[in-house]
Amino acid sequence: MMENDISNAMIYRNLGNTGLRVSALGLGTKVTFGKQISDEMAEKIVTLAYNKGVNFFETSEAYGNGAAERTLGKILKNKNWRRSSYVISTRLSRSGDAVTEQGISRKRLVEGLRGSLDRLQLEYVDIIIVTRQPDTHIPIEDVVRTCTHLIELGWAFYWGTCKWTPAEIMQAQSVARQFNLIPAAVEQTGFHIFQRERLQQMQEMCVKLSLSDLAVSQPSCNLWVSWHLAIERMLQLNDLKGLQCHPKGHQALLEHILSPKGRMHQTQVRQLCKLASRLHCTCAQLAIAWCLKTPTLSCVLLGAATVDQLQENLEAIQVQTRINFTVQSEIERILSTDSSDGFL
């Protein structure tokens, strides 16, 4: 297959005011890479994504204790694609159990990124994402200076934030202007059809600061919908064994789905699936396409466990053209009983 086959008509968007163009759908590695799927399947998924025009790949030192980065690094080395043809984002938060291997101190960020580069087998990443919480005692100026230093070393081109408050982001941008440092280019935030509040709160600020949003759901919106449907089927069949075999790392999600709020979400998923059927798409495609309609989003990150699942989700690019005002209003009506505070 030719490089970057555009049969899915991938859309590309600006990453803030950086001038960097990224695919509207990106591939995240948290849920599956290095843990739930083989490296062979991971390579097939990455290859399909790249061939369908995806140029944004997201990972983190914390995903599988570095396993996701190692898997992605091996794939990129095997494929030998031009490094200039794709974008790698890695999130720094913790690399081990020692107190010096957690947080976002200068030492932690420098050593963390160096470790990520080793695992990815890359000379640089394109974007460093810094998780602010719970290190609220670390001066924001020090974080901005450290990220500027890493960029000046040639280890990255841009940096961004994750889970920072609007006030913290405003302060970081102010510090960057005051001391002629490099400002953040992106905020990575949890966002899906059941978790909308934070991004909606951030939109006005992002526009003012020319800051881009990366939408990433933990788990991503397509997997969220799939798990709701799968667990509902298990409940209907009284499949207690199936529930007990649910992936260990997703017990919190299972508990949420079985809670009163989760039951409400299951009802909403059924209604959304009926709407999706009328639009001739799957419920997961509808959920992803709905995310794509958010104006400040540069990229919606997908998770996938199989090639077929990724192919289905990539087709949300076409589905988003069917989401007009009437459809959006119907989706909001379905979700109107939800407080939108999300599970994560």
UniProtKB/TrEMBL annotation:
Gene3D superfamilies: NADP-dependent oxidoreductase domain (3.20.20.100). InterPro entries: K_chnl_volt-dep_bsu_KCNAB-rel, NAD(P)_OxRdtase_dom_sf, NADP_OxRdtase_dom. It holds the Pfam family Aldo_ket_red. Residues 25-320 form the NADP-dependent oxidoreductase domain. GO terms for molecular function: oxidoreductase activity; potassium channel regulator activity; transmembrane transporter binding. GO terms for biological process: monoatomic ion transmembrane transport; regulation of potassium ion transmembrane transport. GO terms for cellular component: voltage-gated potassium channel complex. It comes from the Eukaryota. Keywords: Ion channel, Ion transport, NADP, Oxidoreductase, Transport. Belongs to the shaker potassium channel beta subunit family. This is Voltage-gated potassium channel subunit beta-2, variant 2. It comes from Clonorchis sinensis.
